[in-house]
Amino acid sequence: MTWVPGEPLDATSISRGDHAADTLAGFLGALHVQAPALAPSSSDRGAHPRKCTDGFDRFFHVVVPGGVAGVAGGVRAVWDDAVAVPEWEGPPVWVHGDLHPANVAVSDGTLSGVIDFGDMFAGDPAWDLAAAWVVLPAGAAAHFFDVYAQADAVAIRRARGLAVLTSLVLMLMGRNGDRGLPGGRPTWGPAGRAALDRVLREAV
């Protein structure tokens, strides 16, 4: 194992947005290569968003009335758009599958590492591309996709929907027992809400 310097993003923030976008794009560009035939698949991730509709509806109806009711229409519109687009047509690629603020490290204001590869699988890269909104700060998503340069408009729309899904999951986890910081300050719930705000503002 290699030591990754820094703090988890849910305990700090990124101040060098373009640098972090460059770093994330470089990491995912290297990771998203065709996976071998025997690579593991995921039972709950990696598929087209339309196969996650039941989960989205459950999270939506639990989370939205509790504090984000004013953006319910926007949340639903982003998700419905992701569900409507075609599936990933390329070969399954290696996907980290769990990129959120607690699974990336930040040092000197930018990304310094990615941790927790326990859910790695072969599938649609859009599951990782959602990190453009879930991980990166406001205004960095467009730069990320320019540098990554492997995602067409359809993949970006799937990724944006998956970013909404991840945001709702983080908010629900925050409500049900946020891991928090010493002193009791919550982390996952606020990180999820911030990500939701970004994805609603930034269509790329």
CATH architecture: Alpha-Beta Complex
Helix- and strand-based class?
A: mainly alpha
Q: Could you tell me how far the N terminus lies from the C terminus, measured between alpha carbons in angstroms?
A: 36 Å
CATH-level-4 superfamily name:
Aminoglycoside phosphotransferase (APH), C-terminal lobe
Q: In CATH's first tier, which class applies?
A: Alpha Beta
Biggest beta sheet attributes: 3 strands, antiparallel
CATH topology: Aminoglycoside 3'-phosphotransferase, Chain: A, domain 2
Helix count, DSSP H or I runs of 4 or more residues: 8
Question: How would you sum up the global shape?
Answer: globular
The number of distinct β-strands equals: 5
Strand order of the largest sheet: 1-3-4
Rg, Cα atoms, Å: 16 Å
Mean pLDDT: 91
Low-confidence stretches: none
Give the number of domains.
1
Salient structural properties:
about 200 residues; mainly alpha; Aminoglycoside 3'-phosphotransferase, Chain: A, domain 2; three-stranded antiparallel beta sheet; about 10% strand; transferase activity; Aminoglycoside_PTrfase; AGP_Transferase; Kinase-like_dom_sf
How does this structure look, described?
- It is a single chain.
- With 204 residues, the chain is mainly α.
- The chain has one domain: Aminoglycoside 3'-phosphotransferase, Chain: A, domain 2, CATH 3.90.1200.10.
- The protein has 8 helices and 5 strands.
- The chain has helices at residues 17-31, 53-63, 72-84, 126-129, 131-134, 141-148, 153-177, 188-201, and strands at residues 7-8, 93-95, 104-107, 110-114, 121-123.
- The strands form 2 sheets. A 3-stranded antiparallel β-sheet has the order 1-3-4. Strands 2-5 form a two-stranded antiparallel sheet.
- A hairpin with a 2-residue loop joins strand 3 (104-107) and strand 4 (110-114).
- Helix 1 packs parallel to helix 6, helix 2 (53-63) packs across helix 7 (153-177) and helix 3 (72-84) packs across helix 7.
- The model has no long low-confidence stretch (mean pLDDT 91).
- Residues 1-161 form the Aminoglycoside phosphotransferase domain.
- Keywords: Transferase.
- This is Phosphotransferase family protein.
